[in-house]
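Project standup — Tuesday

K.O.: blocked on the structure for the chain from last sprint. Re-posting the sequence here as requested.
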Amino acid sequence: MPNSKSKLDWCLASEKRMKNILPNDKLSKEHIEKAKHNLKAADYNIKGHFDDWAVSQSYYAMYHALLAILFKKGFESKNHECTINTVEFLIEAKEINLNMEDLSFIRTTEKMTAKDAKSLREEFQYGTQTDVNKVLLAELLEKSKAIVEKIEVVLSEAK
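H.V.: unblocked you, prediction finished:
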C-alpha cells in the first residue's frame, strides 16, 4: 500500500490532477449512468461497424464507473492514471470491494498486453486503424459490462 498511497499523494498535490471534495452521491450516480450510456453506444457502434469507436466507448464506460467510485468517496479526478491509482488505493485500503484484476484490465500495464483496455483505446482513438479483431472486441465489451455491473454493486455497498 505505500506505493499506492504515494501515488495518491502525488495526484492530490495538484488540483489539476485531483482533489478532495465532499462525497457526492448525485455525481456518482450520474457517472454510472454515463457508463451505461457508453456501453449502449459501444453496442450500437459494433452493429454499425464502427468498431474503433466501440473500443473507446468500452474503455470510457469503465472509466466513468471508476469516477463514480471517486465521487462516492470524496475525490474529483481530472487525470486517468490518478483515477485508476486512487481506486487501487481504495481497494488496498479495503474501503471498496473490487478486484485488482478488474482494475489491471482497465489500466495500462507495464507489459502493455493486447487485453489492456486503456492501451487498446489509445491505439484505436489516436491511430488510423478502424478494424478491430472481433473476438478481442467481444471480450472487451463483455468485460466492460461485467466491470460496470461490479462497480454498481460496490457503490450500493459503499458507505
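K.O.: great, moving the ticket to review. Residues 108-113 have pLDDT under 50 and may be disordered. The CA atoms of residues 14 and 142 lie 35 Å apart.
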